[in-house]
Design a protein that fits this description.
355 residues; alpha/beta; eight-stranded parallel sheet
Length: 355
């Protein structure tokens, strides 16, 4: 059985922006040094670095190697061979890589977003070539310039990308906004999934709460799921796959129940229901985490649509390098069917990412 880590990360570094064209050099993010910060959970005092991106300051996180289980060199793809050796020790065959700072919308000007995305995609494509297929990656495209986004998406597909990042709410627009339809059409043609990773895609949404919780992170992806179903995007784009990454999966029963109740109240003709195989029919995949009640979630017909990710390089509540062993142990104790494990580890991520 192959183990595919459906949600791992890289930390951007100064090297990430070295692939900008000559005319874009003045748009490079600048590294600043912030004040000393004491981490609340561990008491370790660290000086955080910052990015100056498009006139705004963004946190460039200083990781704790012990807490993250990684080193700066493997996080930043400066040591690809070392990262692959670490995967061997963890028993992971393939990792799918997402960015860190670029998980959120960091630029308000199209020309800046174009330069950042192009440089990031070139950097990660070249770095992962040395992994001999062990490291795959999700492209980041500039959705403030759709023509350029489609050009970059085609380039990314030709250079090893296996998905395209999309935020739940992007620059003030929900996922069902027709302005994104060209992206969905091209992704469908290229057999690339839309990967909705948790993260603030709109500074106005992020500003609703200083706390990194519901207002900042959960509201966008919940909105995206509802818009997918209510506006019939799976039918409009009949082979497009959509994944919800690092969002947990426990929200699914609630959202589906809410949609079903609204549908019944409004007397629409086609009710939504997990029992009616909604995820499978709609080609929607969700990454599950170790803190969730997986036996309960499996009662809702999710076994062909769940993915597993380590959140590698990060050190928040989603990061569990031993996630594969956790679910294997659950199967060993009889808490989940053994047949579910290879689906979550291999079959479902292969189907979702087209590996």
């Amino acid at each position: 059985m192959v183990r595919i880590d459906a949600d791992a990360h890289v930390d951007e570094s100064d090297a990430t922006w070295e692939y900008m064209d000559a005319a874009e050099q003045h748009l490079k993010p600048l590294t600043l040094t912030g004040p000393e910060n004491t981490a609340l959970s561990s008491g370790d005092s660290r000086v955080h670095r910052l990015w100056l991106l498009d006139g705004r300051v963004q946190l460039r996180r200083t990781r704790n190697d012990a807490r993250s289980g990684t080193t700066a060199a493997v996080r930043e793809l400066a040591d690809v061979e070392g990262r692959v050796r670490h995967l061997d020790r963890l028993g992971i065959d393939v990792q799918v890589l997402y960015p860190t700072v670029l998980l959120g919308a960091v630029a308000a000007r199209p020309e800046v977003e174009v330069a950042l995305c192009r440089s990031y995609n070139r950097w990660i494509a070249q770095a992962t070539e040395r992994s001999r297929g062990r490291l795959r990656w999700v492209a980041v495209v500039p959705l403030l310039d759709m023509d350029e986004a489609l050009r970059q998406l085609r380039w990314a597909k030709d250079h090893g990308a296996c998905g395209v990042l999309k935020r739940g709410i992007e620059h003030g627009k929900v996922i069902s906004d027709p302005c994104f339809f060209p992206l969905y059409e091209e992704a469908m043609r290229l057999d690339l999934p839309i990967c909705i990773h948790v993260g603030p895609g709109d500074p106005r949404v992020a500003a609703l709460s200083p706390f990194e919780g519901t207002s900042r992170f959960e509201k966008p992806f919940l909105s995206a799921f509802e818009c997918l179903i209510v506006y019939g995007l799976p039918d409009r784009f009949p082979t497009l796959r959509v994944g919800f990454i690092e969002t947990m999966a426990s929200w699914l029963p609630y959202v589906i129940a809410d949609l079903s109740a609204r549908n019944t109240f409004n007397r629409n003709s086609q009710p939504w229901s997990l029992q009616a195989d909604l995820l499978r029919r709609s080609r929607i995949y969700v990454a599950v985490q170790t803190s969730e009640d997986l036996p309960y979630l499996l009662k809702f017909g999710t076994e062909d649509n769940l993915l597993v990710g380590t959140d590698y390089t990060h050190e928040d509540q989603s990061a569990v390098l031993g996630v594969f062993q956790h679910f294997e142990d659950m199967a060993g104790r009889g808490e989940i069917p053994r047949a579910v494990v290879p689906k979550m580890f291999e079959d479902n991520p292969r189907a979702f990412y087209g590996l």
